[in-house]
């Protein structure tokens, strides 16, 4: 037997193993997506993005429970595989290819074609890019963080808001220097870079409170809201 032959044999065995592992991983991913879809139940066509987000969240959790690490689940190869599976089962839809007019004098209303190399970047109804790694509540992949790194509960968000935005200059709604555009600009920055409301029409008060609600307690002595 030549050394060449042995090497080839070894390659076949190694490649065979890799292919096997790939098939096994692919099956696990498909099973996880199916399970997540079952868990979510019926989908509402008008709210596909919420449905997709929940399926992806559940898929991630199922894979973590199966022993995948978060680095594996979010790796480019596995993320691409999951995306492909979600396309096949119709949880996400391939968006039609955008055709840009490079010399068009105006911007598009929905932000498409701002970047001619990546026409979909910054378009409306697209996921926003994370600036920092996610830091959810310890051991969770989607629960709002309520515990600090020192293990103590984080301060009440309303309290933080009141401290950070304290009206030290005593601006009133009759201000002659601050107009409505201030609020509009804040809203624009807010919705453009940090938050896209995904969940509509949720009942967040009373007995039928949705699981997606995260109530904030009003601290005693709040300058705007009554004591809660
Ligand atoms: C954005 O607008 C372009 C036309 O300017 C259209 O082709 C595209 O589908 C729109 N995208 C979304 C997400 O509505
Ligand atoms: C704003 O002006 C109106 C009319 O002059 C007055 O009734 C109201 O109390 C003022 N509001 C504040 C917050 O100063
Ligand atoms: C809560 O949901 C139940 C069942 O759907 C319904 O009968 C009830 O009226 C709801 N209550 C409120 C306060 O909306």
Please describe what this structure looks like.
This is Peroxidase. Residues 1-21 form the signal peptide. The protein folds into three domains: 1-94, no CATH class; 98-133, no CATH class; 135-165, no CATH class. Helix 1 (3-40) packs across helix 2 (48-65) and helix 1 (3-40) crosses helix 4. It is built from six helices and no strands. With 228 residues, the chain is mostly helical. Bound molecules: 2-acetamido-2-deoxy-beta-D-glucopyranose (3 copies). One 2-acetamido-2-deoxy-beta-D-glucopyranose binds at residues 98, 108, 110, 112, 123-125.
Count of helix runs = 6
Alpha-carbon Rg, integer: 24 Å
Helix content: 40-55%
Q: Which ions and ligands are bound to the chains?
A: 2-acetamido-2-deoxy-beta-D-glucopyranose
Measure the end-to-end span.
Answer: 83 Å
Major sheet details: none
Would you identify the regions where 5 or more consecutive residues have pLDDT less than 50?
A: none
Mean pLDDT across all residues, rounded?
84
Order of helices and strands: HHHHHH
Assembly context of the chains? single chain
Number of strands: 0
Structural class, from helix and strand content? mainly alpha
Strand content: under 5%
Q: Please, how many domains?
A: 3
Described by the principal axes of the CA atoms, the overall outline is extended
């Amino acid at each position: 037997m030549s050394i060449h032959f042995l090497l080839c044999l070894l390659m076949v065995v190694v490649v065979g193993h890799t292919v096997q592992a790939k098939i096994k991983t692919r099956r696990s991913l498909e099973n996880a997506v199916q399970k997540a879809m079952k868990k979510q139940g019926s989908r509402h066509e008008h709210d596909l993005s919420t449905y997709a987000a929940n399926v992806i969240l559940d898929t991630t959790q199922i894979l973590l429970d199966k022993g995948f690490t978060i680095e594996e689940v979010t790796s480019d190869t596995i993320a691409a595989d999951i995306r492909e599976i979600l396309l096949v089962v119709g949880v996400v839809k391939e968006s039609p290819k955008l055709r840009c007019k490079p010399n068009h004098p105006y911007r598009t209303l929905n932000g498409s074609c701002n970047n001619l190399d990546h026409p979909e970047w910054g378009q409306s109804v697209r996921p926003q890019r994370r600036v920092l790694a996610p830091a959810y509540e310890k051991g969770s992949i989607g629960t709002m963080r309520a515990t600090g790194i020192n293990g103590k509960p984080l301060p009440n968000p309303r309290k933080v808001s009141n401290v950070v935005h304290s009206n030290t200059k005593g601006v009133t709604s009759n201000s002659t220097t601050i107009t409505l555009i201030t609020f509009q600009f804040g809203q624009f920055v807010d919705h453009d870079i940090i938050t896209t409301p995904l969940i509509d029409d949720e009942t967040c008060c009373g007995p039928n409170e949705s699981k997606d609600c995260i109530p904030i307690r009003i601290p005693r002595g709040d300058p705007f809201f009554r004591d809660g």
